[in-house]
UniProtKB/TrEMBL annotation:
Top-level taxonomic group: Bacteria
Record-linked Pfam families: DUF2243
Name this polypeptide is given: DUF2243 domain-containing protein
Ranges annotated as spanning the membrane: 12-38, 65-85, 97-120, 132-153
UniProt keyword annotation of Transmembrane helix present: yes
Alphabetized UniProt keyword annotations: Membrane, Transmembrane, Transmembrane helix
InterPro entries found in the cross-reference section: DUF2243_membrane
Keyword Ribonucleoprotein: no
Length: 162
């Protein structure tokens, strides 16, 4: 009979891959949707408002560094997933992988929201009158994704017959 710790170690490569992919993809959703499509903010828009061409250029460069980090996180997740695919002892589970993706995306929101929005104040989700509500909503969404992902990880045990 497999112990829970033994089962976890067999799922860890998938969990690690999913969390890194979730972090990277969560960052891409933030950068593409909030920075580029909606143009609600840019990386340093609270510090360097988009009132001059020079400030716009600085923000564009920092948005690029942000996307470069997202790319590194995503490639790391793909590399972890590739390595897991070559192992015979890894237990594959849709619940485990999907839950890990959600946890990674949620962790991205929580960490980025606390550091960039609250501690450093370099930008806010949607600056203006209700910016705190938008920032808190971003954090709550992140925490909800982490929670749902965690619940899916717990159900991953039953999906694989444990």
């Amino acid at each position: 009979m497999e112990t829970n710790g033994g089962l976890f170690s067999k799922r860890l490569p998938i969990i690690s891959a999913g969390i890194f992919l979730g972090l990277g993809l969560g960052g891409f959703v933030d950068g593409i949707l909030l920075h580029q499509i909606l143009q609600w903010h840019h990386m340093l828009s609270n510090v360097r408002p988009l009132t001059t061409d020079a400030n716009l250029d600085v923000n564009m460069v920092w948005d690029g560094w942000f996307h470069a980090l997202d790319w590194v996180l995503t490639v790391t997740g793909v590399a972890f997933l590739w390595r897991a695919g070559g192992r015979d002892d890894v237990v594959w589970s849709s619940q485990t992988f999907g839950g890990s993706l959600l946890m990674g995306a949620g962790l991205f929101n929580v960490v980025e929201g606390i550091i960039d929005h609250q501690i450093l104040g370099i930008h806010h989700v949607k600056p203006g009158v209700h910016q705190l509500a938008w920032d808190l909503g971003f954090l709550i969404l992140g925490a909800l994704l982490v929670f749902i992902g965690w619940m899916m990880l717990q159900r991953g045990d039953s999906e694989i017959g444990q």
